[in-house]
Amino acid sequence: MSSLPDLVSTRSRGRLADEAFRIASLLAGLAILVVLVLIAVTMLHSAWPAFREAGLSFFTSREWVPNEGKFGALAFIFGTGVVATIAVAVAVPISVGIALFVTEVAPTRLRVVVVSVMDLLAGIPSVVFGLWGILVLAPNIVDVYDAVSRGVNPIPVLSELFNGTQTGRSFFTAGLILAVMITPIITSVTREVFATVPRNDKDGALALGATRWEMVKGVVFPHSVGGMVGATMLGLGRAMGETIAVALVVGSTPQITANLFSSGDTMPSVIAFQFGEAAGTHRAALVALGVTLFAMTIVVNVAARMIVGRVDLRMRGAV
Amino acid sequence: MKTRVVALVIASAILISACSSKDPKSPSAAAGSPSSNYAKLSATLNASGSTFQAALEEAAKAGFLEVAPKVTVNYGGGGSGKGKTDLQGQVVDFAGSDSLIKPEDKPLYKGGDVLYFPIAAAPITLAYQLDGVSKLNLSADTIAKIFEAQITKWDDPAIKADNPDATLPSTPIVAVHRAEGSGTTSNFTGFLTKAAPTAWTLGKGDTVNWPSSTQAGAGNQGVAQLIGNGTGTLKGTNGAIGYVDFADAKATNLKTASIKNAAGKFIAPSLAGVAAALDQTTPAADLTYDPLNAAGDATYPIATPTWILVYKNQTDKAKGEALKGFLNFLLTDGQALNEPANYAKLPAKYRTLAIAQLKSLVIPA
Amino acid sequence: MSTAAIPAPSLQATDTSRSRKLRNHLATGFIWATFLAAALPLAFIVFYVVRAGMRLFSYDFLVTNIPIISAQPGPGMAPAVVGTLLITGAATAIAVPLGVLGAVYLNEYGRRGALATFIRLMTDVMSGVPSVVMGLFIYTIWVLRYGLSGFAGALALACLMLPIIVRTSEEMLRLVPAGLREASAALGCRTWRTTVRIVLPAALPGIVSGAMLAVARAAGETAPLLFTIGVVSKPNTSLFGANTALSAQIFKNAQVPFPAAQDRAWAAALTLILLVFVLTLAARVVSARFARK
Fold first, then answer.
1. Separation of first and last alpha carbons in chain C
2. B32: burial class by Cβ within 10 Å (0-12, 13-18, 19+)?
3. What's the average model confidence in pLDDT over A284-304?
4. Measured between beta carbons, which residues in chain C are less than 8 angstroms from residue A38?
5. Which one of B85, B205, B215 has the shortest CB-CB distance to A251?
6. Predicted local confidence at residue B36, as pLDDT
7. Is the pLDDT of residue C67 over 60?
């Protein structure tokens, strides 16, 4: 009979290694906190001169003239908001449709194809989208925009929104490209949420004679509202922070206008283009834009996670 | 596991072969006396700045590489504003700029005094794309009003007054300017301030407060891309007009307008027109000069200077020597590269002064 | 008992009204349309990139230097290829060990504790930081002090990858059955030994696959590199000193009017897409093949 393992000596020998490992992993975990704190502190420190000089007018003024020391971010906040809204407005119906496609409509083999297509789309780098946007989409979409503008000319509100373009680089072009980019993430989260709908409820609806669409409307959607909202907000957060693809096609013309076909500018894109040459207060103002953007995306992302997280917990209990 | 090993092997293969990478065939520099001094120089020089001189920098890099194979020059462009900012933080070894350092910015330059070395001059063209119009005359007042968005269509009376014989379509005008801080902008607006003082109200500077109905391009090349010539990938925009350096306008096959000079004549952009402007101008003691709207019948009014900015006190011996060699090359044998690259050569008096200034570079022993 | 009168119930499909059927068909049609709406742009873009990129893409393209005269036609993005591989590799070497170790803390030690929950929340916050802000951050704390370098770019990319790796690794660790840990503890193994010898190997395929996806994302990033790496025209195999990357070159060439430069941009885009594709495929293969064991 073999002797029992010697537990006493193992304990003292292994304790040091265990402590060391625990501390190492704790430090790694804290690294994230450290980096975040560093980001917040250094950015606020660099941005402070601009905030101090411009005061509240940083957020309310639309005049951005570095040469004269005027730094009003309103036009960029507006631009970021408009582009992200267009992106979400276009992407959400498509993403929900694809999620439904995968969970309800598609035959099994096609399901794998769709998921692969989504993965591929998610993997294409943003700069490639930007390259295609600036060299292919923008020049060729001018005619489309002009046709639309002519078409809606008599209609009151729409004629303000779609009022002609100069070069094709515009809020709308940027929004379109962003929509393609955020579709994968919205689709993936929505798909997960749809997958948690209890089978029984769905089968029950069908058994009662509902068509598939009625089942979706009556069972899947109500169940998933929270999750869909969360997914939309995740997409919104991603769209607000996207830099390169937007920078190339939005036109770099800060302005506040109702015309979605006109050129504009967004916070990340002006940072990308002007930071290289900026000095002194100009640089501080750009960092201040970065801080503003960061704050906005934090709020959106945390809210999104909370909503999706709550849905997740609820589902686990239900199933 | 296997996938990872294979990927690693492929990556290493690419890395190893790239290390011994090939150089594409580049056009040989004009024949100059190969100086054995150049061959001993060895350093990497990082630079950024003016896109106006970018085409010349490329030609100079290629030419210098042939006589000083161990010197690598990395020119990052980004606009005169970027060059000056990078030089302030000593992030680059020299900066290309078409505009001067503002007196209030001088304390920001960490390395002390900055020297200006003129290397070339060239026209800023008013490049445009307009179906059916191949010849265009513009006066400074008209240009000012176009870029202030007061003239919005091509058949405006002011443009017709400059071009009595032309038939102009009623296409809307798309005015294109620079998105970032640019010495080209500074010179263009400087010209308008001098030649159209009442019509031009936006002042002079690396950036000005352009009207929001105008378009912005990044770099001289970005503006050229927006204007375009209507063919293939260079489709651009019909009705667009913007200010682009001569080299890029030619390389993109853009149509350019003839500008009315101080003597009242409409002159097409050309190196001869710039040479005439340079002859009328005298450089200051620090080698800065202003050839805009110079007198003379044959002068092109928007002749633009461009300089290389370096710190007088160099901190690194190898880099300092390489920099001195590069500047010397640009001012002597390298001048032969100017005209093929579409830049005007410096007149003798500028070159002499610049070569003399080279001696005041302080290089550690 | 009378056998007449009561008709047998009809077991045929109920007659759904016309309008309900129509709505159902419309909805199904819409759903199919949305799939096309996503697949078509993807097909357009990939097709265009492949067609335009194939003009220059070749082995030569990967090993020839960038022509000094940018308007001059000719292949070559060697410095960018080297730069992308080097910078992304360095970023991976920084982010993966740190991220996996952090995930180990979250799942094995911290679990539901206050600190661990807080770290998880902060990880989500960090994954939402716009990439340009990361670039600004590294510029402020590193480049201003030590200059432009590939290493600075790698730091910025590592900051982007870290939250993704922590999150995916933690999920993979969570999937390892508790029974394995308990059995190992019962046999006298300390936590660190259990984690290193049992849990990590079990979660490894998932962790590797998650890491590869993070690498794929980092390889395509441009904004963090804009202010941190500078530019070179010859390959730089050292992390120190300026460097360039495929994404940065594409961004630059997208804004010039020279067909030659644009061709190089398309070929570089093709290279990037292939790189991302290979990594994503490898990630799938790894997770599928080993998960079965």
1. 66
2. middle
3. 89
4. 137, 141
5. B215
6. 58
7. yes
Taking each continuous run of H as one helix and of E as one strand, the counts in chain C are 13, 0
SS3 label, residue B238:
coil
Residues 6 or more apart whose Cβ sits within 8 Å of residue C236: C79, C82, C83, C86, C150, C242, C243
pLDDT digits (tens, 9 = 90+) for A169-218: 999 999 999 999 999 889 988 888 888 888 898 889 889 888 888 888 88
- Of B359, B276, B361, the C-alpha closest to B319 is B361
Q: Rounded CA gap, C189 and C193, in Å?
A: 6
Please indicate if any CB of chain A lies within 8 Å of the CB of B105: yes
Which of C26, C117, C118, C136 should one mutate to test binding to chain A, selecting the residue with the greatest count of A CBs within 10 A?
Answer: C136
DSSP class of residue B153 equals B
pLDDT band at B274 (very low <50, low <70, confident <90, very high): very high
Residue pLDDT, tens place only, B337-360 = 999 999 999 999 999 999 999 999
DSSP letter at B52 equals T
Q: Which structure tokens are listed for B174?
A: 């798309």
Asked if B237 contacts B174 with a C-beta cutoff of 8 angstroms, the reply is yes
Interatomic CA distance for residues C293 and C283, integer angstroms: 16
The model's pLDDT over B36-74, given as tens digits with 9 standing for 90+, comes to 578 888 898 989 999 889 889 989 998 998 899 899 898
Asked if C68 lies within 8 A of B26 by C-beta distance, the reply is yes
Which of the two residues, C200 and A5, has the higher pLDDT score?
Answer: C200
Test B3 with C76 for CB contact under 8 angstroms. Answer: no
Q: Could you report the predicted ipTM of this complex, rounded to two decimals? A: 0.86
B28 touches chain C (CB under 8 A): no
- CB B219, CB B179: distance < 8 Å: no
CA-based nearest distance A302→chain C, Å: 7
How many H-runs (helices) and E-runs (strands) does chain A carry? 14, 2
Spatial strand order in the sheet of B266-267: B137-138, B258-260, B266-267
Query: Comparing A301 with A43, which gets the higher pLDDT?
Result: A43
At residue B142, does pLDDT exceed 90?
yes
Rounded mean pLDDT of A278-287? 86
pTM of the model: 0.86
Reference A20, options B322, C196, B191, C65; nearest CA is C196
* Contact residues on chain C for B224, CB-CB shorter than 8 A: 256-257
The structure tokens listed for C87 are 């910078």
Residue numbers in C near A105 (CB within 8 A):
28, 31-32
Subunits with at least 3 CB pairs below 8 A relative to chain C? A, B
- Is the CB of residue C158 less than 8 Å from the CB of residue C94? yes
Query: B125 near B270, Cβ under 8 Å?
Result: no
Shortest alpha-carbon distance between residue B198 and chain C (Å): 35
- How close does chain C come to A124, measured CA to CA in Å? 6
| B22 touches C at CB < 8 Å | yes
B215 in contact with chain A, both atoms CB, cutoff 8 A = yes
Average pLDDT in chain B:
86
B5 touches chain C (CB under 8 A): no
Query: What pLDDT does residue B2 have?
Result: 52
What's the rounded Cα separation, in Å, for the pair B333 and B29? 9
Sorting pLDDT into bands at 50, 70 and 90, what band is A316? Answer: very low
Contact A268 C130 (CB under 8 A): yes
As beta bridge partners, residue B313 has: B362
Q: Are C159 and C134 in contact (CB under 8 A)?
A: yes
d(CA A65, CA C3): 95
